[in-house]
Every structure is written in structure tokens, then in C-alpha cells.
Design a protein that fits this description.
The chain has no helices and 4 strands. The protein is mainly beta and 95 residues long. The protein has a domain of 53 residues. This is Mini zinc finger protein 3-like.
Length: 95
């Protein structure tokens, strides 16, 4: 007999814009983590708390944040994922 196991990973709910990526997962981009003082040997972020796409999904502008101007890769990525897999437990009839 096959059993179905569903594992759901939830993000911390900090917000961010969401995109569907693959089956059963939602990707959100939260606060910007770009270090603007790296050239000076320091650490300073701009305080942008949420990625807001500058353009429509599928366009080049969708990868740029309207709030801070940074590329989406500088924003913390949160994934809500549902992982589904099936397995057959060992047969307990054989000793």
C-alpha cells in the first residue's frame, strides 16, 4: 500500500510580493539586503521592507524594485512550499 505524505513549509509571514514557482510553491521577496557601504568597508542597507516589481511579470522591469531600485536578487527570498511524495512502507508480514 502506498501512502502519501504532504509536507508544508511556511514562511514567517513577513510579507513581500509573491510569484508561483513550480507546483505548489509561492516565492515572495521581502526586505532588501544590499550593502550600500561595502566599498567603504562598512555595512548599510537602505531599509526597503518589501520588493515591489517596477513592471509586469515577464518583463525586464519586473526584476527591479520600484521602492529601492535594486535588482530582485538583493531582496530576501521566502518560499512557501508544499512537498508531496509517495512511499511504500516496509512489509511487516515478512520476518
Amino acid at each position: 500500500m502506498k501512502k502519501r505524505v504532504v509536507v508544508v513549509k511556511k514562511s514567517d509571514g513577513s510579507g513581500g510580493r509573491g510569484n508561483r514557482s513550480g507546483s505548489g510553491s509561492v516565492v515572495r521577496y521581502a526586505e532588501c539586503q544590499k550593502n550600500h557601504a561595502a566599498k567603504l568597508g562598512g555595512f548599510a542597507v537602505d531599509g526597503c521592507r518589501e520588493f515591489m516589481a517596477r513592471g509586469e511579470e515577464g518583463t525586464e522591469e519586473a526584476l527591479s524594485c520600484a521602492a529601492c531600485g535594486c535588482h530582485r536578487n538583493f531582496h530576501r527570498r521566502d518560499v512557501d512550499a508544499e512537498v508531496v511524495f509517495e512511499y511504500s512502507p516496509p512489509n511487516s508480514d515478512h520476518h
